[in-house]
Design goal:
With 336 residues, the protein is an alpha/beta fold. The protein contains twelve helices and eleven strands. It has two domains: 222 residues, Rossmann fold (3-Layer(aba) Sandwich), CATH 3.40.50.620; 85 residues. β1, α2 and β2 form a beta-alpha-beta unit.
């Protein structure tokens, strides 16, 4: 296995469908592991071949969860400085403040993205490259399957995803296996480190990673799981297009704090489409919400709406859902 070639990487970039020409700066999340160091190397090599190369901003987050994390971040900075040369700069972003006891990895992930998004906003950067790969996609599918996720969750990570209004996260390696990224580093003399938390079975993702060895013996390989995620992504995208059309065609009033639907027109659609329209309504009214309401609660509410009679007004995630049967209106409004 030769690793990711220059032409391979150009193909992966082209597949993202994002025009990078004219971007004055690009950000890259770099933990120091083989995945992110392979991405850093490939982007530097790609930038070298451009007439007007963007400034590369390599970003490392020090979560402060271990006593040695600050030193590790500084070691990554030294390696990145050598790798970058005069093509960019490396920055360490620190997660300050008290750390939660529960759901630590999820909290660290949110903090990591918020720190990088904040940096990009200050620097005027609109593209943040992430090194998630095919094995990560497979683990994401298994993790979400264990949590009982619906179609959207099982379709995995998107290659291109909006993060707020002004930032896109780009994942060019979702069809590339981890072994190939390791070989990219080894074959090109790129130093990398291993994160000890990736071996800590306290975390669910680590336990799932260990279980994959058994699953692969039954043919459930990372490649097959990633293919399944892509197929589900295609179905999700089609449903999103249809749901957006139904949403627009059945909206009587659309304000920042209130939505009125034509109830009869909406409820006559397939249940999956109605669910998506309700979630679109929630997202419109609560664009800054960290989480959507639990899917089970939305499904339970849909069941009550389908029965029509005696639907009781309720609040989910700060949004009030109310049915005006006489007018034939389903009303969503901000709780405040």
């Amino acid at each position: 296995m030769a690793g990711v070639s220059f032409q391979d990487f150009q193909t992966y970039l082209d597949a993202l469908g994002v025009d990078l020409e004219g971007e004055k700066a690009l950000a890259v999340a770099v933990s120091g592991g083989p995945d992110s160091m392979a991405l850093a190397f490939c982007l530097r090599r790609w930038a070298e071949g451009l007439n007007q190369a963007p400034v590369l901003h390599f970003l490392t987050v020090d979560h402060g969860l271990r006593s040695e994390s600050a030193e590790e971040a500084e070691n990554v900075q030294a390696v990145c400085g050598t790798l970058l040369g005069d093509l960019g700069r490396h920055h360490i972003l620190r997660w300050e403040g008290e750390k939660p006891q529960a759901s630590l990895q999820e909290a660290a992930r949110r903090a990591r993205y918020d720190l990088m998004a904040g940096y990009c906003a200050v620097q005027g950067i609109r593209c943040l490259f992430l090194a998630h790969h095919m094995d990560d996609q497979a683990e994401t599918l298994l993790f979400r399957l264990a949590k009982g996720s619906g179609l959207d969750g099982l379709s995995g990570m998107r290659p291109v995803q909006a993060y707020g209004d002004d930032l896109m996260s780009l994942r060019p390696f979702l069809r590339v296996g981890k072994d190939e990224l390791v070989q990219t580093c080894v074959g090109n003399g790129v130093d990398y480190v291993r994160d000890p938390s990736n071996e800590n079975e306290r975390f669910a993702r680590v336990r799932l990673r260990r279980s994959r060895e058994v699953l692969e013996e039954e043919g459930l390989s990372a490649k097959r799981l990633a293919v399944t995620a892509r197929r589900l992504e295609r179905a999700r995208d089609a449903l999103d297009v249809l749901s957006r059309s139904v949403f627009e065609n059945n909206t009587i009033e659309l304000k920042t704090n209130r939505i009125v639907f034509n109830f009869n027109g909406l409820i006559g659609q397939p249940e999956e489409i109605v669910l998506r329209c309700l979630l679109m309504g929630f997202a419109h009214l609560r664009p800054d919400a960290d989480y959507m309401p639990r899917f089970e609660k939305i499904e339970a509410m849909l069941g009550d709406l389908l029965r029509c009679e005696g639907f009781r007004k309720r609040t989910l995630g700060g949004v009030i859902f109310e049915l005006d049967s006489k007018a034939g209106h389903l009303i969503l409004r901000h709780e405040k």
